[in-house]
């Protein structure tokens, strides 16, 4: 594997960090008072969430074409279904709450089910890409892989609520950063041995 280029590093680290920062302002509960902000926050997050799938795909495809395809499909499933969660539980529920109480249970039920599919796909894409990094960097990448996977799982459980969801995004970014550093160290060691 060649050294991860700046664009790949940016694709791995920027989305979870930006989403986590936005998540620090996410209301804990959808109330009448918070409903307008809730809706607008999720409109802002809508184009950001799919970007979480880009970094793992770039890593996996640089290591192995088959894993690249698998990660691309899993990332696509994540992007589609997690966007459904954001649209339904974020945008639609906020809008419904802003107008009236009726229909929230239905919207949240659908959002939860669809978001779960997307979240599982994100965990799978993260696992596949982390596996590629382990293949290249060996055991040095293992702590980063655990951090990224733990963050992906935490994201599935906590969305972007403070503190769990925000910390999950930080764990995803820290895990990728660890794996990036270990992959670079491995290349430096290989060059020194040659």
User: How far apart are the first and last residues' alpha carbons, in Å?
Assistant: 16 Å
Helix content: over 70%
- β-strand number: 0
Beta-strand share of residues: under 5%
Round the Cα radius of gyration to an integer and report it: 18 Å
Q: Which overall shape is indicated by the principal axes computed on the Cα atoms?
A: elongated
Helix and strand succession?
A: HHHHHHH
Notable traits:
194 residues, mainly alpha, 7 helices, 80% helix
Strand-helix topology:
Layout lengths: L5 H18 L11 H11 L8 H10 L1 H35 L4 H34 L4 H17 L5 H30 L1
Helix pairs in contact: 1-3, 1-7, 2-4, 3-4, 3-5, 4-5, 5-6, 5-7, 6-7
Structure report:
The mean pLDDT is about 90. The chain is elongated and about 60 Å long. It has one domain (about 5-194). With about 190 residues, the chain is mainly alpha-helical. The protein is built from seven helices and no strands.
Give a short summary of the structure.
The protein has seven helices and no strands. It has 194 residues and is mostly helical. The mean pLDDT is 91.
């Amino acid at each position: 594997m060649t050294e991860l280029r700046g664009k790949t590093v940016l694709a791995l680290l920027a989305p979870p960090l930006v989403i986590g920062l936005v998540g620090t302002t996410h209301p804990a509960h959808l109330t009448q008072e918070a409903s307008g902000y809730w809706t607008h926050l999720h409109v802002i997050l809508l184009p950001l969430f799919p970007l979480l799938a880009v970094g793992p795909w770039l890593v996996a495809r640089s290591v192995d074409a088959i894993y690249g395809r698998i990660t691309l499909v899993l990332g696509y499933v994540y992007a589609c279904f997690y966007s459904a969660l954001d649209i339904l539980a974020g945008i639609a529920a906020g809008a419904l709450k802003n107008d009236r109480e009726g229909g929230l249970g239905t919207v949240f039920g659908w959002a939860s089910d669809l978001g779960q599919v997307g979240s599982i796909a994100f965990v799978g894409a993260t696992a596949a890409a982390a596996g590629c990094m382990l293949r290249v960097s060996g055991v040095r990448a293992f702590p980063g892989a655990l951090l990224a996977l733990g963050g992906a799982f935490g994201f599935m459980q906590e969305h972007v609520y403070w503190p769990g969801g925000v910390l999950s995004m930080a764990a995803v970014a820290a895990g990728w950063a660890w794996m990036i550093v270990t992959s670079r160290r491995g290349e430096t060691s290989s060059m020194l041995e040659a």
